[in-house]
Specification:
The chain is mainly alpha-helical and 100 residues long. It has a single domain, classed as Orthogonal Bundle (10k-s Protein, Hypothetical Protein A, Chain A). 59% of the residues lie in helices and 0% in strands. It contains five helices and no strands. Helix 4 packs across helix 5. The longest helix has 17 residues. 12% of the residues are buried.
Length: 100
């Protein structure tokens, strides 16, 4: 009987839709350490969001996919070797060229 109940609970948990499991993240609070250790979300997803955020601030609507990959790699390397204690957004701001 107990095994059936545990199996039922496991099936219920597996059947949760992604909408039920969503989490809200404050991007300004993500640390370099969390980014590098994959503790928040996929680095690719975070890099895409950050790119959109900064491009939006600059009024740019074009995306260079190869540049996006390179920027994500540069941010990761910066976080690993230069600033493990800072926030991810601080790292991005230091690495991104200023202006429009």
């Amino acid at each position: 009987m107990r095994k059936r109940r545990l199996l039922s609970i496991a099936i219920s948990l597996l059947s949760l839709s992604p909408a039920q499991a969503q989490t809200t993240i404050d991007a300004a609070k993500i640390t370099c350490k969390q980014f590098v250790l994959l503790q928040v979300a996929s680095p690719e997803h975070i890099a895409i969001w950050l790119s959109g955020y900064y491009h939006g601030k600059r009024g740019s609507t074009s995306i260079d996919v190869e540049q996006l990959k390179e920027q994500a790699k540069n941010v990761r390397n910066y976080c690993i070797y230069k600033d493990k204690g800072g926030t991810l957004m601080e790292a991005v701001e230091k690495l991104m060229p200023s202006g429009k």
